[in-house]
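Try this one yourself first.
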């Protein structure tokens, strides 16, 4: 068996933390200078906030700079067509455009220069390598190639030297056939889809754990890959290891991913600086606590993002990882700010409920959180499915779930027990919250 090297880029991946911070500061200074001189919008924002390039002396000084969000990207593209006035490189340098449509349906462009694209794919190769992908793997890329930034990630696998199979977003029977025919060893989907795909195979009389060669599944787009109960179920179904990845359409296909220690997602600190803040006050939260992820791209020049509010709720650690890599690790994505439910003053994420539902052997694992209103108070009902073979007392089962919720989440939701397969299965990202309250 070929002995492969341990790291993709040892020097960068194992850099002492003080060196990472020095590197970030020098890149960040260049980036603030670049955005201030090249982007009319950033210049106006900085001027209005009374800050400029000379105000950035330490990494912490970044806090003085204003933040932007998805709405700004969209509105600036409309105000200054075709690509918005946050871009900092001439169009002739652009080689690739990804776009996300979001809820309004207006595609917002995220351009890349040749160097940006090279950085994106080199980082992707680094992540794949850290998750254990090697040249003797066969990688089936089952993500959408149309404008979606996750599409070109397949090039990262080619850089690793794996045999890449460009599956794309295709019907599940065809995907299963591809995985089986060419004995793919690795694939990438959302956690919901990995689950659905495995169940579909089983329904067709194929045991994915026995009849496929899949040994690793990369997942992204939903919190599931870092929820132990969800991960455990998908791993058992496929007889494979699940690695969680996190990406953002406005930066890279993946900005963080799990190494083989599978203990958090290593962030690309040499490309992107992160802050985690209280979404209400904007104050930084201590390491380990949940808050909104704010990103600053420190290398990407086509359309740099300075203090971009992602709306994703995360927590992180800078503790050393057993793999020897020094870049900080996210403890997974706890949820989207948009999906956060406030029930009796408690912040509840669907991922909290998922932990409970997927740990109960009498439930199928599918669930939906429904919010209604009673006496001006938000009421949460969790719809779950009993397994096919469940013969026990349904009231006792409902009460057992409520007690778990009380213990773990701090609230006692109503439970609606449904028959198996009553809820819709997701082929992409699952919709976990249904808000039935009347909007004012
Ligand atoms: Zn690690």
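Now uncover the answer:
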């Amino acid at each position: 068996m070929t002995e492969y090297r341990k790291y993709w880029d040892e020097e960068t991946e194992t850099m002492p933390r003080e060196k990472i911070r020095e590197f970030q500061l020098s890149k960040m200074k260049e980036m603030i200078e670049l955005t201030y001189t090249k982007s009319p919008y950033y210049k106006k924002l900085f001027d209005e906030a009374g800050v400029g390039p000379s105000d950035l002396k330490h990494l912490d000084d970044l806090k003085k700079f204003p933040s932007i969000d998805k709405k700004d990207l969209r509105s600036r593209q409309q105000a200054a067509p075709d690509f918005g006035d946050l871009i900092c490189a001439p169009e002739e340098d652009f080689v690739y455009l990804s776009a996300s449509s979001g809820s309004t349906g207006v595609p917002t462009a995220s351009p890349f220069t040749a160097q940006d694209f090279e950085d994106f794919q080199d980082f992707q190769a680094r992540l794949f390598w850290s998750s254990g992908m090697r040249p003797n793997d066969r990688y089936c890329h089952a993500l959408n190639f149309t404008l979606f930034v996750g599409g070109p990630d397949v090039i990262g696998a080619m850089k690793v030297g794996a045999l890449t199979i460009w599956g794309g977003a295709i019907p599940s029977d065809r995907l299963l056939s591809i995985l089986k025919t060419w004995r793919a060893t690795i694939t990438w989907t959302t956690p919901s889809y990995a689950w659905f795909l495995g169940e579909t195979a089983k329904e067709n009389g194929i045991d994915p754990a026995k009849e496929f060669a899949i040994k690793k599944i990369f997942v992204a787009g939903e919190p599931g890959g870092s929820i132990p109960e969800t991960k455990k179920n998908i791993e058992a179904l496929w007889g494979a290891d699940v690695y969680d990845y996190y990406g953002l359409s406005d930066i890279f296909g993946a900005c963080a991913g799990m190494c083989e220690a599978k203990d958090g997602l290593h962030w690309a600190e040499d490309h992107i600086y992160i802050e985690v803040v209280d979404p209400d006050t904007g104050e930084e939260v201590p390491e380990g606590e949940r808050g909104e992820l704010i990103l600053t791209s420190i290398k990407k020049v086509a359309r740099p993002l300075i203090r971009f509010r992602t709306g994703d709720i995360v927590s992180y650690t800078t503790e050393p990882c057993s793999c020897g890599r020094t870049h900080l690790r996210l403890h997974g994505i706890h949820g989207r700010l948009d999906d956060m439910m406030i029930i009796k003053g408690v912040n509840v994420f669907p991922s909290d409920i998922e932990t409970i539902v997927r740990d109960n052997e009498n439930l199928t694992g599918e669930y939906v959180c429904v919010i209604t209103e009673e006496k001006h108070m938000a009421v949460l009902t969790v719809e779950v499915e009993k397994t096919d073979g469940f013969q026990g007392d349904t009231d006792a089962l409902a009460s057992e779930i409520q007690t778990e919720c009380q213990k773990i989440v701090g609230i006692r939701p109503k439970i609606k027990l449904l028959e198996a397969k009553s809820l819709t299965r997701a082929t992409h990202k699952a919709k976990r919250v249904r808000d039935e309250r009347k909007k004012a």
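Discussion: Residues 341-435 form a domain with the GMP Synthetase; Chain A, domain 3 fold (CATH 3.30.300.30). Residues 281 and 291 are 11 Å apart (CA to CA).
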